[in-house]
Amino acid sequence: MPTRRTALVLLLGAGSPAMAQQPRPQRQPQGPNLSAPRTLMAGAMATAFISRAPANARLAISRPTDPPEGAIVASPLGQATVLSLPAPGEVGSFEWRLLGESDGKPVILLRQPLVTTAPAATLAAPARVARGNPLPARGIGPNGDRDRVVLVKPDAPPDAQGPSFFPAENVESTLEAPAEPGSYELRYVMDAPLTGPRVLARREVVVE
């Protein structure tokens, strides 16, 4: 007499519908993906991660009301999946955009909000230095790719040139003090899209 387990095996045999292999559902192809900061200090560099982007795609930062062809800053992706762009120097609401092309015209494939906050910077350096001597300096701010820490005369315009370094590369460096004695100003100069050069911090340095 067959046991209960034997009867169950006979009932659910290999040819029964219950044991038949069910077809696996096919996955639908996924579109592009964009992951980037939603809040950022104005003028700072931000890194976005992009996947499955089509050929000729571009990454851009625009105002929400800008048309697809309008961008404050943009860069082609090429084969890259990680790309950094400088945020606008103004405080406000913007958006990341992944752009493609259709009939030769740009189209928005993806968008993500971006809010910029007030930029700020700090400086550190000796208050006095001898003429032509090394001046150790430190500057921290948005650290955009065009920001500078520079030593100039106090009445110089924001784009004035002088001994300088780029905090995006290193927040500390040693400058050479000018040969002419007098009062100077160590500055953190943000140079961002929409604003251009703008002095965020100042520190008096006397060259003796």
Commentary on this structure:
The protein has two domains: 33-117, Immunoglobulin-like; 122-207, Sandwich (Immunoglobulin-like), CATH 2.60.40. The chain has one helix and 16 strands. It has one helix at 4-11; strands spanning 33-35, 39-41, 45-51, 58-62, 73-76, 82-86, 92-102, 105-117, 122-124, 128-129, 134-140, 148-152, 164-165, 172-176, 182-192, 196-207. The strands form four sheets. The protein has a five-stranded mixed beta sheet with strand order 2-8-7-4-5, with no helix packed on it. Strands 10-16-15-12-13 form a five-stranded mixed beta sheet, with no helix packed on it. A three-stranded antiparallel beta sheet has the order 1-3-6, with no helix packed on it. Strand 15 (182-192) and strand 16 form a beta hairpin. The longest helix is centred in the first third of the chain and has 8 residues, at 4-11. The protein is elongated, with a radius of gyration of 29 Å.
